[in-house]
Structures are given as structure tokens and as C-alpha cells.
Design goal:
The protein is mostly helical. The chain is built from 20 helices and 13 strands.
Length: about 500
Amino acid sequence: MNKPTVVRVRFAPSPTGFLHIGGLRTALFNYLFARNNNGKFILRIEDTDRTRYVEGATENLISILNWSGLDYDEGPYLDTHGKIYQKGDYGPYIQSQRIEIYKRYAMELLKKGFAYRCFCSPQRLEEVRKLQLLNKQPPKYDRLCRNLSETESNRRAAIEPYTIRLKVPDEKIVFTDIIRDKVEFDGSLIDDQVLLKSDGYPTYHLANVVDDHLMEITHVIRGEEWLSSTPKHILIYKYLDWQPPQFAHLPLLLNPDRSKLSKRSGDVAVEEYKKEGYLPEALLNYVALLGWSTEDSQQIFTKQELIDKFSLSRCSKSPAIFDKQKLLWMNSEYIRKTDPYKLMEYSIPFFVSYGIKIDINNSEIKEYIVKLIQLEQQKIKLLKDIPYMIEFFLKPDTEIEYKENVVKKYFYLDTQKQILIEVRDMLQTITQFDKTTLEHQLRNFCSNRGYKTTEVFQLLRAAVSGRSEGPGLFDLLFFLGKERVINRINLVIKKFFLNIK
């Protein structure tokens, strides 16, 4: 099969749980490389390790990629009912549906003498491993079955379970990596990798190479953790007389303390960042900078700018630091620049989880929420913050929560009660309840009565919102409206000043 001239790359996750931030970066870099080169971006599900398979993980992976905006050209998709279907000329794109293909190539390697049957039991392999560790040797298969005659191998294969292992030569294995240039491994230190397990399922190494070849992948862009697997893959390509793709291994991701960014360190699931209220555009922008940069060190990119400027030549070999604080900063920058109508749409699930019901079919309510979001847009860091920041506008007057520290500070002196009564009476006389009039009347009120503006304004804010912080006071009063402002003042007077006459 001749290699195509068009660039073809793939993201090939295993459905073992959530999508790791590192996996998102791999998907993103493949996506950007494909789009920058007018190529094809393929999704392939590598689910041959059935011991780690998690039910529903494939659907979740596809859903998260859709949320992220990484549209691919071939692979498994979800229909409107959440069911998987596959699209493309090189499928199926789920490896568990391609088992017979891998068996065929494993047998071809066996027939050519580049692989052999291994009859060692798991118990023996474990004993060999323990002994090697005890002797401070690198654990690897001792090649006991490597020199079995063909006759003996065939005889035992008829009555015993076996795996098929790759014959790794004791010689240098050299390849060129786009990011790391020349890479060299000593074959004598590489294990004779299992290619086909005793249950008939391939290992990652065989299935990965076979699929990359049959799906005509031109560039393999993946994490540094797969670098040590590449010499085994190079050998399989060589033994099957296939032209290998070009390889590019991305740098490791580390925590700020330079420990490896792993599941054990927490906060590595893309799903969690979605639940926290990060914008997909902000997350992609930040992840793009983990091991890649432009010459001018640009930080904020549109998606099209990322596509236009992306190049593997600008990828670093050095580990990249995943800094949540920088991601949070970037998310707040994106929120400030995002259309408030879009923010409203994004935030609807967060209102639901917060317990605030919104009639999304009511245009007046949607317009009102958009205006409220605009009030606080410069302060919002996460989408999940939005319901909390504006809930006192949306809740009934009788359901406003007054925090204990607010009550103790503002609702215990007879002078505070008197100020609220006087402010209420003044507000009742205002016919034009707009921000300009409110500010003018409240400042005149303070001046005429000899009150400090901070004293009155903070007390009034606490009475109508239950908080000591929030949007500007005159915005707060205007968007609540005259009736609700006066009603809340009356409720506070009755509830917290009962013992003050």
C-alpha cells in the first residue's frame, strides 16, 4: 500500500476512564498539525486491554472531544441518542472490532521468524522478574522459549496456551524524531515484547502499528512516555516491510513541584475542568502552550491562530509545567472577552446544579440574566461562579440568605434600623428608579441627614442582597427594582430588628 501524500494523524485513547489533560494535549496537537497541513485527523479507540476497559468511557471520550471543539474527520461518533456509530473508509475505528486483523499479522511475523511462541506461565514469569530485581537487573523476559524448534513449538501449541513475542535483536535501533532528532536504543536492553496474548487479543504494540499502517497514518504525535516503545514499533514496521510514519514525542507534563502530572496527583481529568466551569476555548489555549510556543511568546490565541501558527518545530523537549493558577487566569481573561449571551448559554447547567430553575424559552428572563452577567463579567473566573454571584437577583425575596457575619455587622443597632426605615421611606418617593437618580437621591440623603455614605450604602447592600460584596450598589438596586428593594428592606427590619423599638 502506497503512503498517501495527504497528512493523516490520529488520537488513539484507551477507554479506561476519564480523558487526562495529557491526552487532551495529544489530541489538540494532532488536530492542529492536521488542520495546519490541510490533513485528516482521526479518532481511534484502543480498547484491546480488556482488564482496564471501563463501560461508557468511549462515549465519554467522544463527548469531551465534542465539548472541546476538536472535530475529527474519521472515527467513532455519537448520534443524537448517545449511541456510537463510525464514519470513514479505514474503519472500524474501535480495535476490539479488528481482532482477526491483528491475529493475521502476528502469524505473519511468526511465519517469517521475527516472532516466536512463548509457553511460560504467569507464575514462572513472575519468579523470573523477582529474581532479576533481587539481582538488581532490569526485569525482562529471559527468552527461554525463543530458541524452541519449529517442530517443538507447533507440538506444544496444539495442547498448551501461549503468547506470541517479538524477536528483538541485540543491536542498536535508531530512528529520527521530529522533536528530538536522532534517538538510539540498545536492543539488548529491550524486552521481547508480547504481541498477541493467550486470549487472542493483541497488545498495544502490535495493534497500534498495524492500525497506523492500515489507516495510512503519516505522523505519530504522542507523549514522551511512549518514546521507549518506539524501537519495538520500528522493528514491527521493518519486519512487515512497511514504511514507518514520522514520529514526534511531546514533552512530559509536570506539576509545579516538578512531580509527574498523574491521576494520583488529582485535577487531571478534562471532565473536572468542564464541571468547574472552564471554557473549552480557554482550556485548549492553555493546553496548547504546554510544550509549544511561538517566537514572540504569544499567550492568548483564537482557535484559528493556533491552527495557523502551529508547528512541531516549535515544540520543546523539556517537560512542561501544568499550572492551575495560570489556567484560571487565562479562563478569566476568556470570560471577560466572551459574548455575555454565550456565557449565559454556557452557564445554564450550572444554574441547574445550583438549584436555580431558569425557563430557557422565556426571552425576557434570558435577557435579564445576560444583563446580570454583564454586571459581574469582569470578576467571573469560572462559569460555576455565575449562579452564586447573581442568585440574589433571581431568588424570591423571602429566600434571600443572610450570612451570619452580615447579620452581626449590619443588623443589630437601633441606628441601623433607623437608617433603613429612613432610606426605605426616601426610596418610596422616587418615581424614576434608574441608576443616575438613585445615586443622586442616596448621596443627597446622606448629606442632608449627616450620615456617612459608606455606612448607608453598605447597610443598604446587606439588606437587599444578604452580602457585603457584589455589583455596584446602584446597579444592584436598579436591577432588583423598586418593589423588591423596598420589600427586602421591610423583611430585614421585621426579621432582625424585632427587639429594637
